[in-house]
């Protein structure tokens, strides 16, 4: 409202000044034209009597003074004899004697007049001057009437503006207060709190953003709680094995050396599993904090895929699975970190082998003009359609009741998604239950 008044009131004042100035200019212009007309009448008829001038002055409602070349008043319109020509100061007379016109606003007996003087010059010689006084009483009354209308308009506009501003401020502040209350509730952990979205404007957009924030916080909290439960179990299981079998060996509760070696093997396997969980957590934390750096170079994805298959071949043979690769005909070069690219492939192949009971796991590498596509295809149990959108989330497990028997920490695919993104790539999963799953990675192709 202060800004509105700061802009509007000076504008209203300026409009009033412009109207007053224009009105006075018009009045001076009219009087000047009338004075010139009187001078013209005298020049055209040197025998023109004062009666004719007085009649003209009376008709135009002005007071007429005729001055000689010395500045002395020689004639005055009859019905205005009460006005003393004392207002004709020496300065005004000198102006007229110098052959210059005179335009002034003066006050006589608390009445405002326009003073207009025009010299009468014949053949370059000053013969006298015509001076006209015109009362501004009617003009001032008219201006006052217009000013009152302007004041009423200003008051009406200010009242309307105040009402609109009050309504708008209430309309904006009410949802803002609701959002402030909701934000405080969310900060206190009440993540089910939602703000009612009442509009499509900026306020509505803010309300939507707060609701979205609450949903994301709730999802993150639920994911975190699930992670704590999962990771606690994942860590507790190998630690329990390590503690139990270490105690068996320490107390020599075994009967044969072969049994002892079996227990030592279990301890080694569980230590590896524990180390893998910890390493996955460490890698994911560094990626999310932007602290994991890549060492990029020109990489042939045919080579990465072949070396990854060799590393998982023994695990696949133990389950009786066939491994196949369909390499690209031309060298599919990309710009990336070979160690991290192999980590992507090993994680995906490990997942495919873990969830495939029979059949085969294959890799298909194809090249396009600007992209390279790597597909990992298995004949495993598949993923339910409603679970597909969540498989790359941290700590997410498909078929949670059976996931422990397959091992893993629930972090592998989250790490894969992060590493693919760091290589400016994309990953997509297509799956059908009881038929199999296809993971497709797309990388920008490096043209050589």
TrEMBL record:
PROSITE patterns referenced in this protein's UniProt entry, alphabetically: HAMP, HIS_KIN
Histidine kinase domain location: 230-447
Catalysis: reaction(s): ATP + protein L-histidine = ADP + protein N-phospho-L-histidine
Keyword set, alphabetical order: ATP-binding, Cell membrane, Kinase, Membrane, Nucleotide-binding, Phosphoprotein, Transferase, Transmembrane, Transmembrane helix, Two-component regulatory system
Top-level EC class as recorded in UniProt: transferase
Gene Ontology terms for molecular function: kinase activity
Its membrane topology: Multi-pass membrane protein
Source species: Paenibacillus arenosi
TM stretches of this protein: 149-169
Record EC number: 2.7.13.3
Localisation: Cell membrane
Keyword presence, Kinase: yes
Protein's recorded name: histidine kinase
SUPFAM superfamilies in the cross-refs: ATPase domain of HSP90 chaperone/DNA topoisomerase II/histidine kinase, HAMP domain-like, Homodimeric domain of signal transducing histidine kinase
Residue ranges of every copy of the HAMP domain listed in the record: 170-222
Pfam families: HAMP, HATPase_c, HisKA
């Amino acid at each position: 409202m202060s800004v509105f008044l700061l802009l509007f009131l000076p504008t209203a004042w300026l409009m009033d000044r412009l109207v007053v100035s224009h009105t006075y200019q018009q009045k001076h212009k009219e009087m000047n034209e009338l004075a010139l007309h009187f001078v013209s009448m005298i020049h055209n008829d040197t025998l023109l009597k004062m009666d004719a001038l007085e009649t003209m002055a009376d008709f135009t409602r002005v007071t007429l003074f005729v001055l000689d070349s010395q500045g002395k008043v020689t004639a005055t319109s009859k019905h205005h004899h009460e006005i003393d020509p004392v207002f004709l100061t020496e300065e005004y007379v000198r102006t007229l004697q110098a052959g210059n016109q005179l335009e002034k606003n003066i006050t006589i007996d608390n009445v405002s007049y326009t003073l207009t003087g025009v010299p009468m010059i014949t053949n370059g010689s000053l013969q006298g001057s015509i001076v006209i006084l015109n009362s501004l009483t009617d003009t001032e009354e008219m201006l006052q009437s217009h000013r009152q209308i302007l004041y009423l308009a200003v008051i009406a506009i200010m009242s309307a503006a105040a009402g609109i501003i009050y309504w708008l401020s209430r309309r904006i502040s009410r949802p803002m207060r609701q959002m402030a209350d909701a934000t405080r509730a969310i900060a206190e952990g009440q993540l089910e709190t939602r703000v009612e979205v009442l509009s499509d404007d900026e306020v509505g957009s803010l309300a939507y953003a707060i609701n979205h924030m609450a949903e994301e916080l709730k999802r993150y909290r639920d994911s975190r709680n699930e992670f704590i439960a999962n990771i606690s179990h994942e860590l507790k299981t190998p630690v329990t094995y390590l503690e139990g079998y270490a105690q068996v060996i320490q107390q020599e509760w075994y009967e044969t050396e072969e049994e002892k070696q079996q227990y030592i093997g279990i301890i080694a396997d569980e230590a590896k599993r524990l180390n893998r969980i910890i390493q996955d957590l460490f890698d994911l934390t560094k990626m999310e904090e932007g602290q994991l750096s890549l060492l990029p170079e020109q990489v042939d994805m045919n080579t990465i895929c072949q070396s990854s298959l060799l590393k998982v071949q023994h695990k696949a043979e133990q389950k009786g699975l066939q491994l196949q690769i369909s390499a690209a005909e031309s060298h599919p070069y990309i710009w990336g970190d070979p160690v991290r690219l192999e980590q992507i492939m090993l994680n995906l192949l490990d997942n495919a082998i873990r969830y495939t009971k029979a059949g085969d796991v294959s890799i298909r590498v194809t090249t396009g003009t600007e992209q390279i596509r790597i597909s990992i295809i298995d004949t495993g149990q598949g993923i339910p359609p409603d679970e597909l959108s969540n498989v790359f989330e941290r700590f997410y497990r498909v078929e949670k009741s059976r996931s422990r028997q397959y091992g893993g920490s629930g972090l592998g695919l989250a790490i894969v998604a992060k590493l693919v993104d760091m290589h400016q790539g994309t990953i997509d999963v297509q799956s059908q239950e009881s038929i199999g799953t296809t993971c497709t990675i797309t990388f920008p192709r490096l043209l050589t």
